[in-house]
Amino acid sequence: MDFSMLHPADQLVMMMERIYSYGMTTTSGGNLSILDDNGDIWITPGSVDKGSLTRDDIVRVTPDGTVIGNHKPSSEFPVHKRIYETRPDLRAVLHAHPPALVAFSIVRKKPETRLVPNVAQICGSVDFALYDVPGSIGLSKKIAAKFGEGHNVVMLENHGVFVGSTSIFGAFKAFETFDFCARLQIEALKVGKISALTDEQIALSKEKQHARMDEFVNRNVTSEEKAARRDMVKFITRAYRQQLFTSTQGTFSQRLSDGTFLITPYDIDRKYIQPEDIVKIHGNWCEQGKTPSRSVLLHKRIYDDHPEINSIIIAHSPHIMAFAVSDAEFDSRTIPESYIMLRDVKKLPFGVSFMDHALVSNTISHMTPIVLLENECVLVTGASLLNAFDKLEVMEYSAKAILDTCNIGKLVKISDAEVKELRDAFKF
Ligand SMILES: [Zn+2]
To answer: What is this structure's pTM?
Structure first.
């Protein structure tokens, strides 16, 4: 979906609904604005329920300060206005107080944006603005000054975060990614010592990840392919809703009976993805005019090596990722249902997903259907889309359960003898 073609009031309503339903703001907290080509600022109102905003609630403030609309603009309007004055390149500003970022704001620390490669790239540089009274001129000056230094994400002491971008989706993406990063760090620190990527590792991932493929025209679309596209969209949007994917991170692929496979596109909003956005791969060829997920060649290698695998998911699910960015080992021997489905999850070093496809593929077996890639992602394989999705969900829930044990007692694993009993009973 191209947000820029929607009216600013509609863009703001859709984004606020998304932020609110995601638990990233309360009904009274948080405000969004868009600066349009006429110089008008469209902004969410103050003191109106954020859970049921409509386009008629959005307020327009013209360059001479005239307020047009049914409500008063948000009390943080002066901050938004001053940010636009300081940074003419920005066209959208988002402010909210999601719990994880507030946690960092009240201990006055910045979240580590180098736990996974793309976060630093999406969020840009981050800095802190000093505390001041909400809605005050002092606060707006302090925040705008930080944007003036070139930061696009500014945390506020004992408050929340302001994000600026060239579009409202850009601001949302940076905000969502930054919040993900804060939540990930909080979870990972419960189980182990975290390790951040170096500049070299981030540069390497940027340079190596794009696959070059020749293109073909996808002429004969079978009913099987149409059904697979439909089902992929269903699971992708569900994975987004359940926060197993973020708006632009998370890859699904599905093999078809003729040996081709379908894969999610690169950088398309997972919330609104459509069947026609999915990319078909035929041998080393890619469907014309589309950009497949950067991990496409890894998927291809796994399908080539493992005829029993028909579906692959790559995700950054927040609780699983706690084990990918820390030195803690993920052990599925928590409850029988988890072990039966997840079995022996292995962790591989950073970079192999784009530099050593053979290693990843050779690690996968019927006893290891899932691999964790350090500081990158989790890769789940399955006999079908539903089977792979089920494994991802079970692993995310198991990871959350393990993280939840931290303050209540020592985890007792299912013993080797009990594992043998399970393998005999369920024949694997
Ligand atoms: Zn606020």
So the answer is: 0.94
